[in-house]
Design brief:
Shape: globular
Number of strands: 23
Bound molecules: nicotinamide-adenine-dinucleotide, the ligand N/C(=C\C=C\C=O)C(=O)O
Strand order of the largest sheet: 15-16-17-14-13-19-20
CATH topology of the largest domain: Aldehyde Dehydrogenase, Chain A, domain 1
CATH superfamily of the largest domain: Aldehyde Dehydrogenase, Chain A, domain 1
Number of helices: 15
Structural class: alpha/beta
Oligomer: single chain
Distance between the termini: 62 Å
Strand content: 15-25%
Length: 490
C-alpha cells in the first residue's frame, strides 16, 4: 500500500490480516540516499499477536491431511508463478541499486520460490514411517511423526523470497504454523506473497509475517517460550546469539550460515567449462551467495594459464544497473557492506598480495545517476598466504583469491584449513580423483565439474561453523516434525 509521501508502506501480516505497526523503519535507496519504502519496526507486541494467531490456527491446519495441505501449496505456487514478473521486478527493485539484477531475479530467485512450494507440496505426499518387529517378545514397533507447533523462520537479504519460501513451504507442508521474519533490508516480496495466501486457501494464522530488525523483532521471536522451533539462515554471529537466547528452552534449531568455499582445479580440468563456471561461482549476485567460491586452488602446472584466462573472463563479467538485462552483476547491499568488502582488499595489499583486476585496478563504467551506488568490480587477488584474513574470513562480496598447489593431499589439507565447511567445487577429468577428493573435503556440499546444481531431495547445509542441521525433502520433514516410537505388545 502507499504510505507517507506516496512511498510503499509495508504492514505485518498476522492472523490473515494486514496490520499497521506503531513504528516504521525507513528503507533507503543507497544510490540516492533517499527513502524508498517504510518497513514495520515490529517488536514484542507484534510477536505476541503473531503467536496468538499461529496458536489458534495450529489445531485446524495440523489435522488436515498431507493431501489437503499439498493442494494449498500447489495453488500458492501457481499464484506466485502468475506474478513472476511483478515479483522479479520487486525483488530486483527492493535490492534496487543495492544489487540483484533483474535477470537473476527472473531466472533464479522467483522461479525457485515457486519451485519450493511445488517441491514440498509433492514431497510431503511420499514420506513413510518406520516399523520393526521383535517376534520373540511379541512386539511390533513403529514411528509416527507430528508437526512441532509454531515455527520461527528467519531469513537474510541476499536471496529474499528464495530462502524464505525454502523454509515456509516445508514447515507448513508438515502441518506447522509459522511466524516468518524476512531481512529488514529486503521485505517487499514477502509482503507481496501475503496478498496471495488467502486466494491460495492458506487459512488465517498459518503463515504470519512480522517485519523489522533482528535485535528487536528477531530476538522477541526466538526467545518466545511458545515457539519451539527456529529455522535460521544468516551469519554466524547472529546464529550464536540465537543459540544463546533459545538455549533455556531447548528449542529445535536449524542454522544455515556462512562459508569460505574453495574451488580445487586440477591440471586435467576442462578449463573451457571450468573458467566461466568459476567466474560465475565467484561473482554471481555480487558474490553475495553463501555458496560462492572465494578461494581458488589451481595445480601449479596450469596456474599461469588459468590465472591469465580467469582474469580475462572476470573482466568480461559486466557490472551494470540491476534493471539492465545484460548486467551480470549489480551493486552490493549497503554502503557499510561495500566498505567492509573494500577493507579486505586494502588488507591484502598491505600484506603484499597482488590485485590482478577489479577494485583499485580497473574503472567502473556506470551511468551518472548510479555513480554514487555501492558498485564494485569483480576482484581477483593473488600472492596471498593461506593465513591471510582474505583466505580465512567470509567476505561475502565479489572478491576471490587464486593460489597454486602441488599435490592432492596438500590441497585437501589447505582447503579444509578454515573454520567454515559449506560448499566446495572440484574440477578434474579423473573420476577416481573427483570421488576421493570430494570424500575428504570438510564441506556439506561438493560440486564436481559444476556449481550450484540443486537437487532439493538431498541434504543441504554446512559443517563446522557453516551450520547445524540440513534442509531438503527428508531433512526438512524430519526437522519440522517430532517423531514418536510406539511399541505394541500382541
Ligand atoms: N548457509 C546458507 O544457506 C546461507 C544462505 C544465505 C546467506 N547466508 C549467510 O548470511 C549472511 C548474510 O546475511 P545477513 O547479513 O542478512 O545475516 P544476518 O545474520 O545479519 O541476518 C539474517 C537474519 O537474521 C536477523 N537477525 C539479525 N540479528 C538477529 C538477532 N539478534 N536475533 C534474531 N534475528 C536476528 C536479520 O534481521 C535477518 O533477518 C552471510 O554470512 C551468508 O553466508 C547463509
Ligand atoms: N538454501 C539454498 C541456498 C542458499 C544460498 C545462500 O546464499 C538452496 O539452494 O536451497
Amino acid at each position: 500500500m502507499a504510505g507517507r509521501g506516496g512511498l510503499l508502506m509495508l504492514e505485518n501480516f498476522i492472523g490473515g490480516k494486514f496490520l499497521p505497526c506503531s513504528s516504521y523503519l525507513d528503507s533507503y535507496d543507497p544510490s540516492t540516499g533517499e527513502v524508498y519504502c517504510h518497513v514495520p519496526n515490529s517488536g514484542k507486541e507484534e510477536v505476541e499477536a503473531a503467536v496468538e494467531a499461529a496458536r489458534a490456527a495450529f489445531p485446524g491446519w495440523s489435522s488436515r491431511s498431507p493431501q489437503e495441505r499439498s493442494q494449498v501449496l500447489q495453488r500458492l505456487a501457481d499464484l506466485l508463478e502468475q506474478s513472476l514478473e511483478e515479483l522479479a521486478q520487486a525483488e530486483s527493485k527492493d535490492q534496487g541499486e543495492r544489487g540483484k539484477t533483474i535477470t537473476l531475479a527472473r531466472t533464479m530467485d522467483i522461479p525457485r520460490a515457486v519451485h519450493n512450494f511445488r517441491f514440498f507440496a509433492s514431497s510431503i505426499l511420499h514420506h513413510t514411517s518406520e516399523c520393526t518387529q521383535m517376534d520373540h517378545l511379541g512386539c511390533l514397533h513403529y514411528t509416527v511423526r507430528a508437526p512441532v507447533g509454531i515455527a520461527a523462520l528467519i531469513s537474510p537479504w541476499n536471496l529474499p523470497l528464495y530462502l524464505l519460501t525454502w523454509k515456509i513451504a516445508p514447515a507448513i507442508a508438515a502441518g506447522n504454523t509459522v511466524i516468518a521474519k524476512p531481512s529488514e533490508l529486503t521485505s517487499v516480496t514477502a509482503w507481496m506473497m501475503c496478498r496471495l495466501l488467502e486466494k491460495a486457501g492458506v487459512p488465517p494464522g498459518v503463515v504470519n509475517i512480522v517485519f523489522g530488525t533482528g535485535p528487536r523483532v528477531g530476538e522477541a521471536l526466538v526467545s518466545h517460550p511458545e515457539v519451539p522451533l527456529i529455522s535460521f539462515t544468516g551469519s554466524q554471529p547472529t546464529a550464536e546469539r540465537i543459540t544463546q537466547l533459545s538455549a533455556p528452552y531447548c528449542k529445535k534449531l536449524s542454522l544455515e550460515l556462512g562459508g569460505k568455499n574453495p574451488a580445487i582445479i586440477f591440471e586435467d580440468a576442462n578449463l573451457a567449462e571450468c573458467i566461466p563456471t568459476t567466474v560465475r561461482s565467484s561473482f554471481a549476485n555480487q558474490g553475495e551467495i553463501c555458496l560462492c567460491t572465494s578461494r581458488i586452488f589451481v595445480q601449479r602446472s596450469i596456474y599461469s594459464e588459468f590465472l591469465k584466462r580467469f582474469v580475462e573472463a572476470a573482466r568480461m563479467w559486466k557490472v551494470g544497473i540491476p534493471s539492465d538485462p545484460s548486467a551480470d552483476m549489480g551493486a552490493l547491499i549497503s554502503k557499510a557492506h561495500l566498505e567492509k568488502v573494500r577493507s579486505y582488499i586494502k588488507k591484502a595489499r598491505m600484506e603484499g598480495a597482488q590485485i590482478l583486476c577489479g577494485e583499485g585496478v580497473d574503472k567502473l563504467n556506470l551511468p551518472p545517476r548510479n555513480q554514487a551506488g555501492y558498485f564494485m568490480l569483480p576482484t581477483v587477488i593473488t600472492d596471498v598466504k593461506d593465513e591471510s584474513c582474505c583466505m580465512k574470513e567470509e567476505i561475502f562480496g565479489p572478491v576471490t583469491c587464486v593460489v597454486p598447489f602441488d599435490s592432492e593431499e596438500e590441497v585437501i589439507q589447505r582447503a579444509n584449513n578454515v573454520k567454515y565447511g559449506l560448499a566446495a567445487t572440484v574440477w578434474s577429468g579423473n573420476v577416481g580423483r573427483v570421488h576421493r577428493v570430494a570424500k575428504k573435503l570438510q564441506s556439506g556440499l561438493v560440486w564436481t565439474n559444476c556449481w550450484l546444481i540443486r537437487e532439493l531431495n538431498l541434504p543441504f547445509g554446512g559443517m563446522k561453523s557453516s551450520g547445524v542441521g540440513r534442509e531438503g525433502a527428508k531433512d526438512s520433514y524430519e526437522f519440522f516434525t517430532e517423531v514418536k516410537t510406539i511399541t505394541v505388545k500382541h
